[in-house]
Amino acid sequence: MMRIVKPRVLVVDDEPGVRKALQRGLRAEDMDVVTAADGPTGLQLARTGSFDVVLLDIMLPGLSGYRVLERLRAENVTTPVLLVSAKDGEIDQADGLDLGADGYLVKPFSFVVLVAQVRAVLRRAGPDASRGALKLGALEVDRALRQVHWDGREVPLSPREFGLLEVLVGRAGTVVTKDELLRAVWGEEQAVTRNLVEVYVGYVRRKLDAVGAGSILRTVRGHGYLASDDQLDEVM
């Protein structure tokens, strides 16, 4: 299955100006960016496993960046994390790296350096960096075993159905267009049309309905499809 090529970045910072600047700059670098303003929201988003890298400020309201990182690693979320802080002491950096951070940026930093670090982390992680499980409420998509479970109950999916759900849950909280799904799931197959996407979304939705997970997959008329739940709706 082809992947949607844009890296997905989560920016967690309590300064509105920083969030806006990073969102604008990283989008200009052809990255898909989601932002959060506090620790609990950042944790809720990051624990879905649907991001390629997290830019995580240390000083956050509600839950510090250290604690967010600590909980992510305790829950076996392996998404690369770059810590961002005004603290430049060796002990601070060592503490962050010991908790499982993949890098440490000191404010104020050069945006060019930040982008270079993000790209370096993505290269080190490789094309299969996101092969860990995706989690959305009680739904778990195991990308290594290619299995889907809802509240512990297996949801049997065909390879194409799995690919479609993997893309949607991998972009949880974000609308994915039919064209994006075509490229990601069917690649360059010339005979495939947008109507086939609708057909397969219907197949997946019926199987999710059968286990009580039908509300996860939604149609956003005129735009595409969205995977989300009530908790994610709230933080997004």
Largest sheet: number of strands, sense, barrel closure: 5 strands, parallel
> CATH homologous superfamily of the largest domain?
Response regulator
CATH third-tier fold name of the largest domain:
Rossmann fold
Strand content: 15-25%
Separate helix tally: 9
End-to-end Cα distance:
28 Å
Identify the strand order in the major beta sheet.
2-1-3-4-5
Q: Give the C-alpha Rg.
A: 18 Å
Class of the largest domain in CATH?
A: Alpha Beta
Unreliably modeled segments: none
So, CATH architecture of the largest domain? 3-Layer(aba) Sandwich
Structural class: alpha/beta
Strand tally is: 11
Bin the helical content.
40-55%
Cα shape: globular
Overall domain count: 2
Mean pLDDT: 88
Q: Please, what is the oligomeric state?
A: single chain
Name the helix and strand elements from N-terminus to C-terminus, one letter apiece.
Answer: EHEHEHEHEHEEEEHHHEEH
Question: Can you walk through the features of this model?
Answer:
The chain is of the alpha/beta class and 236 residues long. The chain has two domains: 8-125, Rossmann fold (3-Layer(aba) Sandwich), CATH 3.40.50.2300; 130-234, Orthogonal Bundle (Arc Repressor Mutant, subunit A), CATH 1.10.10. Helices cover 42% and strands 19% of the residues. It is built from nine helices and eleven strands. The protein has helices at 16-28, 39-46, 65-74, 90-98, 111-125, 159-170, 178-186, 194-210, 230-235, and strands spanning 8-12, 32-36, 53-57, 81-85, 103-106, 134-136, 139-142, 147-150, 153-154, 217-220, 224-227. The strands form three sheets. A five-stranded parallel beta sheet has the order 2-1-3-4-5, with helices on both faces. The protein has a four-stranded antiparallel beta sheet with strand order 6-7-8-9, with helices on one face. A two-stranded antiparallel ribbon has the order 10-11. Helix 6 (159-170) crosses helix 7.
